[in-house]
Amino acid sequence: MKALRVLLIPFLVVAVIAISQSIYVVLETQRAVKLEFGAVVDADVEPGLHFKIPVVNTVIKFDARILTLDAAPQSYLTSEKKALTVDSFVKWRVSDVEKYYTTTGGDEERLRRLLIQRVDAGLRNEFGSRTVNEVVSGERDELMDKLTLQLNSIASEELGVEVIDLRVKKIDLPPEVSDSVYNRMRTERERLAKELRAQGNEVAEKIRATADKEKTIILADAYRQAEETKGNGDAIATSTYANAYSKDPEFYDFTRSLKAYQSTFRSKSDILLINPDSDFFKYLDDSKAKD
Asked: Residue 33, Cα to own-chain centre: how many angstroms?
């Protein structure tokens, strides 16, 4: 009994190991290829639980999700022979598992190198046939759509992957060119700013001159009208005084004398030296007032 148990335990261990080596699971987010002594016997294993023969069969799994290939910035020449530094990325996923395996051996890094080569060639050809304005703004969307279709066709046929999208993140001038371009732009803006300020000062001077002229004219007209009004008032006053004097000369002299007295003796500190017999005191002297 004890000998049987000793023999049974190793058998169970071997059985457990064999079973564990015979079962494999393919997730929904994975694609897999099944090999038999290195040859493909199942090009696209469905997601789920599967069995294989240990040692004889090998299962290689790949990520079936959409992946991003972020290429390093590269320099390209446009049709104007102007250098541009382009930073791009590619969205891709495995479409033909067997072709992907036979081409890359399941090495994702190798796939990245091959895909980058094709992206670089496509961008270089397309940028070389277009101007800076076309690749930056004018035809950028059309260029990306065209390159995506071309790259997808090549990648599907040669690498077994589907290119979902190809986009340019950024387009820059080379550093040695950027500084000179920015300096030229800054100089141009400063020149334009000075020109606009000069034009503004010219307009301001014209406005000030016009305002000063209008001010002088308005003051002259106001002074003329004031003098005319004052002259008319003086004429009316003189006429009124003359009419009043002609009606009662004595009363007119009396009222004028009272005003003169009021004005002369307004302050107590004033001293006036004058002949008492003067006509100034005519209405202060009763004897002269009766005459």
From this structure: 51
Per-residue pLDDT tens for 189-237? 899 999 999 999 999 999 999 999 999 999 999 999 999 899 888 888 8
Pair 33, 94: CB distance under 8 Å = no
User: How much is the average pLDDT of 144-158?
Assistant: 87
Query: pTM of the predicted model, to two decimals?
Result: 0.53
Cα distance between residue 206 and residue 198, in whole Å? 12
Beta-carbon contacts of 288 under 8 Å, excluding residues fewer than 6 positions away, are 281, 282
Which residue did the predictor score with more confidence, 10 or 92?
A: 92
What single DSSP character describes residue 84? Answer: E
CA gap 2, 4 in Å, rounded: 5
Q: How far apart are CA 83 and CA 77, in angstroms?
A: 5
Residue reference for tokens 């079936």: 64
What's the pLDDT score for residue 53? 80
In angstroms, the Cα distances linking 27 to 9, 35, 154 are 33, 18, 28
Measured over all CA atoms, what is the biggest interatomic distance in the chain, rounded to whole angstroms? 180
Tokens 């986009």 sit on residue: 167
Q: What are phi and psi of 263, to 5 degrees?
A: -70, -35
CATH of 67-172 given 3.30.479.30, 3.40.50.10490, 3.90.950.10, 3.40.50.150: 3.30.479.30
